[in-house]
Structures are given as structure tokens and as C-alpha cells.
Amino acid sequence: xxxxTKAKIDDLDKLVDIDNMVIGSKNRRNIIQQSIQLEQxxxxxxxxxxxxxxxxxxxxxxxxxxxxxxxSPSHRRKGFASALxxxxxxxxxxxxxxxxxxxxxxxxxxxxxKNEFIRSGIIENLDEGDPEIIYFNxxxxxxxxxKRVKAVVQR
Length: 155
Prior knowledge:
Blueprint: E1 2-6, H1 12-23, H2 29-37, E2 41-46, E3 49-60, E4 63-71, H3 80-91, E5 96-102, H4 106-114, E6 118-123, E7 132-138, H5 141-154
Helix pairs in contact: 1-2, 3-5
């Protein structure tokens, strides 16, 4: 069973290890730590094992922006990214949620589309020859309110 919770500082080393498995570097440690401290980092677990994480903020035109979704290689294509996104939607501090992925990341595009995100734009020149595709999801006010109340009750 997949569970999603807010990350705690005790999770930091495990999250950095998962990030290192995916990108081959531990250079995002400070970003992950700051996100945990700001309570803007969610983790997915299967039983007690951390399987992935999501980082977000509200600095993108005052809208929620999912800046990073990482799932450990051994847990990919098992619903962890979708579970993280769905939970984020329930707790989002804004009705508009944005995210992005390189054009070459076909798997992530499928995850966004499966979770009712639509393409919203493109940014050139971040990674040479691999533009960033922006995704968007907007919750109707009544759905947003219902999901947020439900999320609070479940905590």
C-alpha cells in the first residue's frame, strides 16, 4: 500500500540517496533540506520504505509549482509519482498547480497527462536541445475545498 506524508528532517539522508540514484549527484541536498524545513516536501512510502518524493513551492506567479518528483528506480511505474501528485493536489495551497518536464522525459509526460494536467507552454534554452514542457492543473473551487477538507480529516 502506498502512503504519502510530509517529509521530516530525519528523512533527509534517504531522500538525498534516492536523488543520487536518479541523477548521480548529491548536490541538491540543501534544496531538499530547505523544502523539508518549509514543509514543502512530500514522501511516498511502501510499508516503511521511502520510495520517492515531491518538492513544491508557491513562487511561480503565486501558484503552486511542483519543482521535483523523484521515484527510486526500483519503484518506478508502480503508481508512486501519481500518488505524490494526487496528494499534492489535495493539499495545494492554490487552485492552480504547475509543473514541468523536459521534452525527452516521455514517462513523466504520461504521468502528468494521466493525472489530468494539460500542456501549458514551453521554455527553450534551459537544457540545450531539450525544451521544458510546462503542465497545468486547475481545481474548481468546490472540488478544491472538498479535497482540502478531506485531506485535513485524513491527517
